[in-house]
Each structure stands twice: as C-alpha cells, then as structure tokens.
Amino acid sequence: MVLYELAGADPELLFSPHCWKVRMALAHKGLTAETRPWRFTEREAIAFSGQGYVPVLVDGTEIVSDSWRISQYLDAQYPDTPPLFGGEAAIPLAAFINAWADRTLLPLIARIILLDIHDCLAPVDQAYFRASREKRFGQNLEAVVADRPAHLSALRSALSPLRDALRKAPYLSGVTSAYADYCVFGMFMWARCTSPVELLEADDPIFHWRDRLLDAFGGLARSARHAAIDGARP
Amino acid sequence: MVLYELAGADPELLFSPHCWKVRMALAHKGLTAETRPWRFTEREAIAFSGQGYVPVLVDGTEIVSDSWRISQYLDAQYPDTPPLFGGEAAIPLAAFINAWADRTLLPLIARIILLDIHDCLAPVDQAYFRASREKRFGQNLEAVVADRPAHLSALRSALSPLRDALRKAPYLSGVTSAYADYCVFGMFMWARCTSPVELLEADDPIFHWRDRLLDAFGGLARSARHAAIDGARP
C-alpha cells in the first residue's frame, strides 16, 4: 500500500490530523503502507484520486481518499485483522466523534498552532497556506493566534466530554483503543508535530490517554518527527 | 416500575433532560413506569435512593439513580427487550455522546431557557433554582439569558458534529434510534417543555431528526405537556 500524506518542508514531518487517523488505523490493524510525502500545492500528484486532499490510500488497484472512507475500506478489505470499530452499532457513533474532532477541536487547536504550522511548511506551501487560512478565519495568521491563553482555555473547556469519558475507561473506545480514539488523537498529533505549545495540563486524564496512544504500536506516534522548536518535548 | 421525575408547578410538566433520556429509553424497550412527580426541594422524598437527584427508578426491590446507570440497568435487567446500545463497543462511545450532551449542549441551552425554566417552577422551587443557578453562572438569571441571539448562535455552532452525523444517517445511532440519540434529544425536550424559543432552523437536519423522535413511540414526546407560553408550538 502507498499512503499519500501531508508533509512539511522536511519530508519526514508528517503532521496532518487526518493522515494521523489513518497512520494509527493501519498500525492498529498491523498493516503497513509506504509514505509518499505530499504538499498542499501538489494537487496534480494526487489528481488520479479524483480530488485534491490527502490522505489518499493506494492499495493495488484500489484508490481511497478521505480518512473516514479509508477506515471503512480497511475493515471491509482486511476482515482478519483487528477491527477498527467492533460492531455495526459503533460505526455511526464513531462517525459522530470523528465529526466532533473535525468540527469542534480542529478549529480551536488551529487558533493555537496556525502560525507554527506555517513555519513548518515549504516556502511554496507557506504562501498557499497563509492565503487560504487567512481567508477562512477572516484575519491574518498572527491575529488568529494572538490570544493564546484564551484559545487554550476554550480548547480545554471544549474537551470536557472527552475528559468525562476518560474518567470511566482508559480509552474513548473502552478498555482498548479503536478508531474513535484515533480520530481525536490525530488532532493532538497535528499540534505535537508542528508546535511547541502544550495543549494539556499534566493532571488531565486526557494527558494520560494521549501518553498511552503515543506509546502504542511500539511508540509510532512518540517517535514521529516533529518540529524541534524547543528541543525539550518528552 | 416507578420513575421519580422532575416536575414544574404543573405536576404533568416533566421537563428534566436526564429524565427524558430515561423516558425515551423505557419507551424504546417497551417498558412502562409510573411517574412520581418530584420537585427540586423535595430531597427527603428520594432520600431512600442515597442521593438527591432525579431520575430515580424503582423496580421492585431495585433502586437505580442517574440516567446513565439506569440505561445500563435496563439493558442488563431486560435482555429480551430491544437493546439501548447494540454491542459492547457502542457503550463507551455512547457514554462520550452523553457527556457531550451534558457538558457542551446543556450549558449552552441553559443560557437560552434558564429564565423560562424558572417561570415553570412551583414557587418554593423558584427560590432554590434562582439561588443555585445564579451561583453556578455567577450572574442573575436575567443577565444569563440577556443576549439570546448570541447564545442561539453559539448553540447552533456547537451542534455542527451532530449536523454532520445526521447528514450520513437518519439517527445518531444509524438507521434506527438508540440511547445515544435519547441523550441528545433529552436536551431538546428540556427546552421544548419549558420555553417558547425555537432552538433550530427549519432547514437544519437536526430539526428533522428531532421531528422523527417527537413522533417516535406513538408521539410520546410530541404529546408531552409543555409550558404553553405562545400557544403556537407545533
């Protein structure tokens, strides 16, 4: 399999939250894919997929884009590997959690790390990123991230339901992790790979959940390349 | 079975979001319980349950409080009735959605309907409600609800993940409703029963999902008593 993943100026800096959902899903299932680093401005390189965003998974003659559709594809195509869901009833609930990560967490984290992401990108991508994100937020990047304490506070408040759930079980999916966990964890990897800002306090149950997932699959996520801005990240 | 439920001055005005979760859960399973109306200030009436909040379900010699624990009890105790979850994997994900309803939606809806709730209560409860809620919000009730357009806008934005999920399936739980739906629907019943404010726009997929649940189980929710403030509620 080949997985097209968003990369920074450093081709080993793979930071997309949606690509991280797929990386963790592949590891969960014991599957491997060769990474093909891709930049925002390389639309023609994935034009074969019929759309313009990563992740794109190529599995023999199958071409699957969109992280959610890839998760469904992997469970259908590889039924003898550990399931990402665990029954039909869990799939729509996991879809909601994926939407919560994308619609609620992603914009809040963006307001903290957007300028750090910019600084990780190849120069040609920086111009695209600045223009598209400044249009989306209606402000220049520096203004979007200006009030970091307020944005951190808003994020930590929005994380309340995750915190509650993790007081009942070690993972969002229960006693072991599954795709719903990876949907949310992808957001934290996005920040970890690009920014020196610590999103969580050390006494937060979410901090410890994130630690468990950083260590999962032989430390796949913990050992991933990140922008070594402060050199002190654990 | 007997279910202790929060009531307004009118004993048939049953408006607690958590009690509505249980009402819908009982209907889903084809079970019935006799309602025992209860007011905030009647702590002694449910002291037998070992705590001070409703819902409290009494089933023979079993006493179960807390809507989430009641949902687990019902599936365990009545395994031959339709399941509220649908597999072990769905339970922790539904627990997250319950926490999202309680932690994210409930405070946002409170900022819209708090004064309307107050006006539905028996006089003795009004004093308790005003004091406890003004302490919680750090403002008087009139100030909490003052900027209704802003609160409605914040609520509709926070509902984005639900909207996304309901574009994929008719219910949060998929093709049929289940407990995760009732957790969220309870919040809308709380508002419907106490307030004339319409929380949703008519072209919102959530509006139509709510309509389907209002009609479920023979129109249990649609026919429920509500504060007929404007007389024009559908």
UniProtKB/TrEMBL annotation, chains A, B:
UniProt domain GST N-terminal: residue ranges: 6-82
Entry keyword Transferase: yes
Membrane-spanning residues: none
Entries under Gene3D superfamilies matching the protein: 1.20.1050.10, Glutaredoxin
GO molecular function: glutathione transferase activity; maleylacetoacetate isomerase activity
Pfam families in the record: GST_C_7, GST_N_3
Xref: InterPro entries: Glutathione-S-Trfase_C_sf (IPR036282), Glutathione_S-Trfase_N (IPR004045), GST_UstS-like_C (IPR054416), Thioredoxin-like_sf (IPR036249)
Protein's name according to its UniProt entry: Glutathione S-transferase
Biological process, per Gene Ontology: glutathione metabolic process; L-phenylalanine catabolic process
Keyword Transferase: yes
Keywords for the protein's UniProt record, in alphabetical order: Transferase
PROSITE patterns with a match to the protein in the record: GST_NTER
Signal peptide: none
Originating species: Rhizobium lusitanum
